[in-house]
Amino acid sequence: MKYLALVYYDEKLMQQKSQQEWDALNQECIACVENLSTSGHFITGSPLMPTNTATTVRVRDNRVAVTDGPFAETKEQLAGFYMLEAKDLNEAIALAGKIPPARYGSVEVRPVRELMEEGNQAGGNAG
């Protein structure tokens, strides 16, 4: 089953890290991806640019509204994602616990649902 691991941290705290600390964390992330790939758990993933580069798009009454910045102001910002293959939620949680930035923020683990032409549950609720 596929799980999306969303990595969050406080960008302001991360910006306080020295270049050496930042490089070390990124090297850990690269090694984490290599390990997840070797074990067959890594599908894809990527770090994201900071939230000041974000643009939010909404459509209301057939009109597109564009806002600079992220969807909402939060304590932690979305920093990147890992798409994982895991046998169940417990394995996905164990894999997410190995993602280095989890030490500085959090990793939200969410099952991925199959998008079908018909028969989807409203809101993605299964059962």
From TrEMBL:
It comes from the Bacteria. Pfam families: YCII. Residues 1-114 form the YCII-related domain. Belongs to the YciI family. This is YciI family protein. It comes from Microbulbifer celer. The lineage of its organism: Bacteria, Pseudomonadati, Pseudomonadota, Gammaproteobacteria, Cellvibrionales.
